[in-house]
Sequence to fold (358 residues):
Amino acid sequence: MMPSNGTDDLMRNVAEDVKTPLVRILSQIQLSKVTGTLNDDLIEATADAALRLLDSYIVSTQIYNGQQQLTLEPVSVGALMQDSARYLARLARQHNCDFSIEVRRGVGLVMANPLALQAALTSLGYSFLYALQEPKKKHRISYVARVTKEGIQAGVFSKDVMFFADSLHKIRNLQGRARQLAPDLAHGSATGIAIADSLFKSMHTDLKAARYSSARGLSVTLLPSQQLALL
Amino acid sequence: MSEVKRADVLLVEPDRILADTYVKALEHAGLAARTCSSAEEAISIVDTYKPKLIVLELQLPGHNGIEFLNELGSYPDLKNISIILLTFVPEADIHLTRSNFKIARYLYKPQATLEQMIESVKDAVAV
Fold:
């Protein structure tokens, strides 16, 4: 199934949002020329996370163009969340943020495409990190997977990101037409959500605004696999 | 080197890493700034501290920078505060419906250097 949002529309927003990490890197280098110290960890974390966002975008375009076979198979969502949190750990430190993972009892394997699910989870985590604004506060973002009546709910949540159902609606409507996809969120933070939305659509599931333990976030419902997880 | 009081420059920048970088660069040049990340916070700070200069990103979460400028321009005691636009929005895409505020300088963030930003701040606060 093709994603309903054209990836060409998304490209303009990817280009806009990648300017933020590039300006961060440029300004760090310029600052180091006057202070004599370079925050190389910040530069590496920023570049690495931006490259992963671009990779996620490429996965979404490959799926859209039929270059990537999209087969659903039994996948450990918890393991993919661990990987995504590890990819984003350095950027999270720069944002004074703990990235945690909560896989609730009963969550086993889900039916998904591992490449697309990994890219979508990483993109969501990236977006939530960029949406954090209060510099002095310690932040927390959580990947959560839990069993619901409908299936396995998997998503990203935070009490520090003001994300509303309306924000997702705007992201879908403004793709390719506005520089700032989600006016509620900081510049640079919405495109990852749009990429994740496209990737989840390709796996026949819809990203939705959700709440978990008084935190706001975005989640999808995935079908549990009948295959037993070997732990 | 310009002598600027702590509350004389307000940096309205939603990206916390960039805000931190700009503040460090300003401090290294002997300038100090308050920071905030939204138009709502900015109005509250401006109301309390009456800064001499605001360095403003237009793409803000919630109310955007243009809405902030329109609000600022509607108060007679605040409309003379100088503004430097340091923004991701290209100049050609900025349509200001009112002009009763002082735009001292426009800097396109992807192409503006820290040095240009600092020189612009020094020039604006020296006037």
About this structure: Helices of chain B lie at 16-28, 39-49, 65-73, 114-126. The beta strands of chain B are 9-12, 34-36, 53-56, 82-87, 102-108.
